[in-house]
Write a structure and sequence with these properties.
Helix content is about 25%, strand content about 25%. It is built from 17 helices and 33 strands. It folds into 3 domains: about 35 residues, no CATH class; about 130 residues, Macroglobulin (MG2) domain (Immunoglobulin-like); about 375 residues, 3-Layer(aba) Sandwich (Rossmann fold), CATH 3.40.50.200.
Length: about 775
C-alpha cells in the first residue's frame, strides 16, 4: 500500500509548532540561568561574657575559702594586673588597622585618668612594673599588705588539692572614682586553676611518619598562595606574636631548622625575643628538665609559624611562669609591638575556673579586633574533656572559647605514598585529642549560628562552639635540642594558622583582623568536598565531644585550610558592591547605564581608585549574538562609584541580559550581578506585560494553537490530480487482474528486512 507523502517544500504541523515554541522561548522571560548574587549581610558583633560585679571580676569566689586547707595570711609579694574598660563602643570588625597610640586616644583611659590610677596604687605601696601604650592596663607588684590596702581585702594563702593557692578572703573593692573603670583584675587569686600548653612529646624522636612543615605547606596549598599575584609574595612586612612562658628557646635550633626546612627561594624569618618579668634571654644552653617542655613548645611555635610565613617577623613573647598576671603582661606586650597581624596562643585552661581572666582579657581581645589583629588559641589536647580518657566531663578551654578568638583544633594526617615512597597525597581525620565543645560562659554570636554550626549549637544549648578551624596536630615534626623530634598537640595547628594569617595579610595589603564572622558566612555556604572550598571539611574521626561529620562539628570546626582559596573568600568578603541600572527593560540595539558603588562591607567607607569591571552579558547561548556584549574597566571615584553605558546588540534574541560589577585584584575580591529585561517586541511598552504571567502563559497557548493550525493548513492533503488524456491507440492493452489465491495457499514471502542499525555513537564530544 502506498503511503501519503507531504509535497516537497511544505512544512509539517509539528515542525511549525516547534518553530513557534522555539521563537516563544526567545521572547518570553523565564529562568534563563542568570545568577543574582546579593551582598552578604553584615554579621552581628561577637557576643561577650555577661556582666558581673567587680568582686567577681577581681577573682573573688567564696568557694575558694571553703576548699582551702590551713589558710594563713599571705606573705609573699604578688604580681597583679588591672585591666580597664574601653571608653567607647567597639569598632565594627574590618574597620581598618589602628596604631596603638590612636587606639589609646579613642578607647583607652584619658592620660590624666591613667596617671591618677598609677598614683593611687603607688600611694598604697605597690610598684607599677609596666604601663602600656593602649592605656588599658597597669601591671603592679607588691606585698600582700599593700594589695590588701589597695583593694580593701585580706589575702590568705593555703593549699587546695595539694597545690599552693592565694585568694582574697574579703570581697575586693576600689575607690568609687576608679572601680567603674576596671574590667578585671588578675593575680589577686592564684593557684586554683592551671594554664597549660598543648604539647605531648612522643618518646623516641621523629619517625618516617612524622608530618613536617614542608608537608603541611603542600597539603594546605601554600605555594599557590605565595604566587597568587603571579610571583612570590611573602609576609616580609608582617609580624606574628607567639605567647608562652618558660626559659625561651635555643637560637641554634632555629637556625638549623630553617636552613633545612626552607627552600632557597624563601626569605628567612626574623625572630625577636621579648622576655618579660624576669624571664631569661634565649641562649644555646639546655634548659633544666623541669622547663624542657616549655622550651620545646616555644621552639615549635616559632618553627611552625615561620615555616608557613617565610620572611615574617616572629615575636617570641614569654614570661617566667604561667601566672595569669604574667600572661596578661605578655598579651599587652604583643599588642604593643609593631606590624603584628596575628597573636598565637598554644595554651589554655578550663573555662569554668578562669572567670577573672576572661573579664580582664575581653577588653584586650576587643582591642585586637578594633586594631585588625587576629587572635588565635589552641582548643587543648584533652579531647574537649576534663581528661584525655574522656571520663571527666565536657570542659571547653579559655581563651579559645572567647568569640573574639579563632579557636584552632587538630587533625590526624595520613600520608599516601607510592611503593617507592613518593608522596601522592594526604587525608585528614579528627585527632582524638583535639579540644572542642560548647562554652558555658559565652553565648554563640549571631554569625556562628549559621548552617550546620547553628544546628549543632542549638542542639547543645546555644553556647559558643569550638573549634572554628583545624590543622595537623598528630605526629608533627619539631627540631629541638639539636635533634629531630615528634609530638602531638593543637600547639602545632595554632601557630600554623597564625602563619597563614600573615600570608593572607601580605596579599591583602592590610591585616585580616577579626575574620571569624566572615569565615562562618562563606563556610556555611560551601558544598562539602568541593574543590573550590577554602576550608576542607574533615568528616571522619572523633574526639570526646563529637564525631567529625559533614559541615561544622565540635571536633574539627569547619575543617582545614586551602590557603589560596581561603584568601579569595576572605578578601572578597571585604567588598560590598551595590549595582543599579538606568532602566529595568531595554530593547535590542539600545544601551543601559550600569552604575555601582564599591564600599567596605562593615564600615561603609568607599574604596577609591579601585579598578572595577562592568560587563553586560547575554543570558542565553541560543541565537546569533551571545556572550559578553560589552566590558569596560572603570576606576572608582571619591564616593566609590563607577558607571558606564553598555549596549545590547540588535541581533540579540534572549529575554534577559545580565549586568555585572566585579573586582579581582590582589587586594580585593567582589562580584555583584543583576538582570535586565530585553524587550524583543521592540519599542511598544504597552506590550511588555505579555512577557509576565499570566499573560505569558496565554500568549504561549495562543502561539502554539496558531502554529499547529497553520501547520495543519499548510500541510493539509491535496485532492488527487487527474491523469492526462492518452489516445486509445497509444494505450497498452490491459489484462484483467489475476485472481487472488486463497489465504491458506499464499506462499510465504521473504521475511521483512530489519530496520537499518543506527550509526555508531561517537566517542568525541
Amino acid at each position: 500500500m502506498s503511503r501519503f507523502r507531504r509535497p516537497a517544500g511544505r512544512p509539517s504541523a509539528f515542525s511549525i509548532a516547534a518553530a513557534g515554541i522555539l521563537a516563544l522561548a526567545f521572547v518570553l522571560p523565564g529562568n534563563v540561568g542568570a545568577t543574582v548574587t546579593s551582598p552578604a549581610p553584615v554579621p552581628s558583633a561577637p557576643a561577650s561574657a555577661p556582666a558581673v560585679d567587680f568582686a567577681t571580676r577581681a577573682g573573688y569566689d567564696v568557694a575558694q575559702g571553703h576548699d582551702t586547707t590551713d589558710p594563713v595570711p599571705a606573705s609573699r609579694n604578688q604580681s597583679v594586673d588591672v585591666v580597664f574598660e574601653p571608653s567607647g563602643p567597639p569598632s565594627p570588625p574590618g574597620a581598618g588597622p589602628q596604631p596603638v597610640g590612636a587606639f589609646a586616644g579613642e578607647f583607652g583611659l584619658s592620660a590624666r585618668s591613667y596617671v591618677a590610677a598609677e598614683r593611687y596604687f603607688e600611694a598604697e605601696g605597690l610598684r607599677v612594673v609596666h604601663t602600656w601604650p593602649d592605656r588599658l592596663a597597669l601591671s603592679l607588684t607588691g606585698s600582700p599588705a599593700a594589695l590588701d590596702r589597695a583593694f580593701s581585702t585580706a589575702l590568705l594563702a593555703g593549699r587546695d588539692r595539694g597545690h599552693p593557692v592565694v585568694y582574697p578572703s574579703i570581697a575586693p573593692s576600689l575607690p568609687n572614682w576608679l572601680e567603674p573603670e576596671v574590667a578585671g583584675v588578675v593575680g589577686l587569686s592564684s593557684g586554683f586553676s592551671s594554664v597549660s600548653f598543648s604539647l605531648a612529646p612522643v618518646p623516641g624522636g621523629a619517625t618516617g611518619n612524622s608530618i613536617t612543615p614542608g608537608m603541611a605547606r603542600a597539603m594546605y596549598n601554600l605555594s599557590t598562595l605565595y604566587n597568587l599575584s603571579g610571583g612570590p609574595n611573602f609576609p616580609t612586612s608582617e609580624a606574628v606574636a607567639l605567647l608562652l612562658w618558660g626559659p625561651g628557646y635555643e637560637p641554634s635550633d632555629l637556625a638549623a631548622f630553617f636552613s633545612q626546612d626552607y627552600p632557597s627561594s624563601f626569605p628567612l624569618p626574623t625572630v625577636v625575643p621579648y622576655p618579660l618579668d624576669g624571664a631569661s634571654a634565649p641562649q644555646n644552653v639546655a634548659p633544666p628538665p623541669s622547663l624542657a617542655q616549655e622550651a620545646e613548645e616555644l621552639t615549635l611555635d616559632i618553627e611552625w609559624s615561620g615555616s608557613m610565613a617565610p620572611g615574617a617577623t616572629l615575636d617570641a613573647v614569654y614570661v617566667p611562669g604561667p601566672s595569669t598576671a604574667n600572661l596578661t603582661d605578655a598579651f599587652e606586650q604583643a599588642l604593643s609591638l609593631p606590624n603584628v597581624v596575628a597573636v598565637s596562643m598554644s595554651f589554655g585552661a578550663a573555662e569554668s575556673t578562669n572567670g577573672a581572666l576572661a573579664s580582664a582579657w575581653n577588653p584586650l581581645f576587643q582591642e585586637a579586633a578594633d586594631r585588625d589583629i587576629t587572635v588565635l588559641a589552641a582548643t587543648g589536647d584533652t579531647g574537649g574533656d576534663l581528661n584525655a580518657s574522656c571520663g571527666g566531663g565536657p570542659a571547653p578551654e579559655f581563651p579559645a572559647s572567647s568569640p573574639l578568638v579563632v579557636a584552632v583544633g587538630g587533625t590526624a594526617v595520613t600520608v599516601h605514598r607510592t611503593t617507592l615512597g613518593a608522596i601522592t597525597g594526604f587525608t585528614e581525620a579528627a585527632w582524638g585529642g583535639s579540644g572542642g565543645g560548647f562554652s558555658a560562659s559565652y553565648r554563640a554570636p549571631g554569625w556562628q549560628r549559621v548552617g550546620s554550626a547553628g544546628t549543632a549549637i542549638a542542639a547543645a544549648g546555644g553556647g559558643r562552639g569550638t573549634p572554628d578551624v583545624s590543622a595537623s596536630a598528630h605526629q608533627d615534626f619539631v627540631y629541638y635540642a639539636g635533634a629531630d623530634q615528634e609530638a602531638d598537640g593543637t600547639s602545632f595547628a595554632t601557630p600554623l594558622w597564625a602563619g597563614i594569617v600573615a600570608d593572607l595579610a601580605a596579599h591583602a595589603g592590610h591585616p585580616m583582623g577579626f575574620f571569624t564572622d566572615r569565615l562562618y558566612h562563606f563556610a556555611a555556604n560551601e558544598t562539602a568536598g568541593a574543590v573550590d572550598d577554602g576550608l576542607v571539611d574533615v568528616a571522619s574521626g572523633s574526639n570526646c565531644i563529637a564525631d567529625a561529620a559533614t559541615g561544622w562539628d565540635a571536633a574539627t570546626g569547619w575543617g582545614s585550610p586551602q590557603a589560596a582559596v581561603l584568601y579569595e573568600q576572605l578578601a572578597g568578603s571585604f567588598v560590598n558592591i551595590t549595582l543599579d541600572t538606568s532602566s529595568t527593560t531595554v530593547a535590542p540595539g539600545e544601551s543601559v547605564t550600569v552604575r555601582a558603588e564599591i564600599r567596605n562591607w562593615t564600615t561603609g567607607r568607599p574604596f577609591v581608585g579601585t579598578d572595577v569591571a562592568l560587563r553586560l552579558v547575554g543570558s542565553t547561548t541560543v541565537g546569533p549574538c551571545t556572550g559578553i556584549f560589552e566590558s569596560v574597566d572603570v576606576v572608582s571615584n571619591a564616593t566609590g562609584g563607577v558607571s558606564a553605558p553598555l549596549r545590547v546588540p540588535a541581533c540579540y534574541l534572549g529575554a534577559r541580559a545580565v549586568a555585572t560589577a566585579s573586582i579581582e585584584t590582589d587586594r580585593l575580591y567582589g562580584h555583584r550581578a543583576d538582570r535586565v529585561a530585553v524587550n524583543l517586541l521592540g519599542f511598544v511598552p504597552s506590550l511588555e506585560r505579555l512577557g509576565d504571567p499570566p499573560f505569558s502563559y496565554l500568549l504561549f497557548a495562543a502561539i502554539v494553537a496558531a502554529a499547529v493550525g497553520a501547520g495543519g493548513w499548510l500541510g493539509r492533503r491535496r485532492p488527487p490530480v487527474s491523469a492526462p488524456f492518452v489516445p486509445s491507440s497509444a494505450a497498452a492493452p490491459r489484462s484483467p487482474p489475476p485472481l487472488a489465491a486463497p489465504a491458506s495457499r499464499v506462499p510465504p514471502g521473504p521475511p521483512p528486512s530489519p530496520p537499518p542499525a543506527p550509526p555508531a555513537a561517537s566517542t568525541l564530544r
